[in-house]
Amino acid sequence: MDLSTAMWTAAVLGAAAVYWFVWVMGSAEVKGKRAVNLTTGFIGRDKAQEKHNQVWSFFVRSKEDIAAASDEDKMPSIVETYYDLVTDIYEWGWGQSFHLSPSLPGRSHREATRIYEERVADAIAARPGQRIIDVGCGVGGPMRTIAAHSGADIVGITICDYQVSRAREHNRKAGLDRRCEVVRGNFLEMPFPEASFDGAYSVQAICHAPRLEDVYREVFRVLKPGALFVTDDWVTTALYRPDDPRHVEAIRGTERGGALATLRAQHELAATARQVGFEVLEERDLALPPAEPWWTRLKMSRLAYWRNHLLISVLAVLRIAPKGMVEVHEMLCEAAAHMSYAGETGIFTPLQMILCRKPSIKP
Ligand SMILES: C=C(CC[C@@H](C)[C@H]1CC[C@H]2C3=CC[C@H]4[C@H](C)[C@@H](O)CC[C@]4(C)[C@H]3CC[C@]12C)C(C)C
Ligand SMILES: C[S@@+](CC[C@H](N)C(=O)[O-])C[C@H]1O[C@@H](n2cnc3c(N)ncnc32)[C@H](O)[C@@H]1O
């Protein structure tokens, strides 16, 4: 190879490398986070590894141990630690909506997510002048879509203080901070008076609750009589076989990777909602055909996960990313594999939806 060819080759490779890193780091506005700015939330950089080990060792135990009474009191703080660790990676590698949704033919993931969230708003007929609660709001992806689509005012609650700060920043940038409020709180004991909301929704969040009935009872309490509540959540389906080791491993891997004590069976959502006093108007697995698979996006090419892992490892070596970030990313890689298997075999769905109403007061 003569000198000029060598120089041209070096120039092209160099440009490709710069483009790749810029593309991978992405525009902060589009991804919400550049790779070089990844943090472990409000956990100090030097504590990230220890905190990851704390979360991992909590969920790697048997369900019986996790369900032990004292652990159920610990759950909210363990879940907050999980979200401190993963929120930036979620934003960087997935976006501002921390949930799964059906793919839509000919639509981008971002469009499919928006359409899914708009359907949540339509399910409870959210409209201007109403005050709606988002139970487990993350960094507010659904909240902003629903506020823009419906015109309603939204109050989001999340256990994770770091997510409160991220959500408030996104709301301000979106010009929605006057209609979208975010509070830090535990959805098991919400800081709101009785009958203070015109509607409620929860997108793939209540699965974190140790006892489903405790959250449903709280939502029932803060809703006005006659108000609607819609939730979609992670459950095992009727195809799940607890005597099949492959099924057990996939579900345990999904629970561990998502900081979930246990996944409930599909029928439990509606049954528990009725138990606390709701009328259940609709119950459906939104993942069933004609919906397209929700796991397509999750089954990013192995190259994508390898590329992300390489980048995080390099940033950790350069002390740009917290050292513990590498283990957190490994945990999520493993979770994605278990979730994809569980989705493809049909033993798990993240989209079990129930639409409920708090009965009106009888005259
Ligand atoms: C409902 C929950 C979270 C749902 C999803 C938002 C997340 C569940 C698993 C997450 C991810 C897995 C693999 C990551 C990948 C290794 C990384 O390079 C980029 C980010 C991931 C794709 C990440 C994104 C968010 C999830 C899909 C709760 C109940 C857990
Ligand atoms: C997977 S995220 C979903 C967030 C949001 N619904 C979305 O779709 O982007 C789950 C959310 O539930 C919140 N959460 C979990 N346990 C909670 C609790 N006990 N109280 C309040 N929020 C909780 C987490 O902080 C996180 O914001």
TrEMBL record:
Leader sequence residues: none
Recorded catalytic activity of this chain's protein: 24-methylidenelophenol + S-adenosyl-L-methionine = (Z)-24-ethylidenelophenol + S-adenosyl-L-homocysteine + H(+)
GO MF term set: 24-methylenesterol C-methyltransferase activity
Pathway: Steroid biosynthesis; sterol biosynthesis
Swiss-Prot/TrEMBL keywords: Lipid biosynthesis, Lipid metabolism, Membrane, Methyltransferase, S-adenosyl-L-methionine, Steroid biosynthesis, Steroid metabolism, Sterol biosynthesis, Sterol metabolism, Transferase, Transmembrane, Transmembrane helix
Residue ranges of domain SAM-dependent methyltransferase Erg6/SMT-type in the record: 82-359
Biological processes, Gene Ontology terms: methylation; sterol biosynthetic process
Top-rank taxon, per record: Eukaryota
Transmembrane segments: 6-24
EC primary class: transferase
EC number: 2.1.1.-
Function: Catalyzes the methyl transfer from S-adenosyl-methionine to the methylene group of 24-methylene lophenol to form 24-ethylidene lophenol.
Family: Belongs to the class I-like SAM-binding methyltransferase superfamily. Erg6/SMT family.
The protein, known as: Methyltransferase
Organism: Zingiber officinale
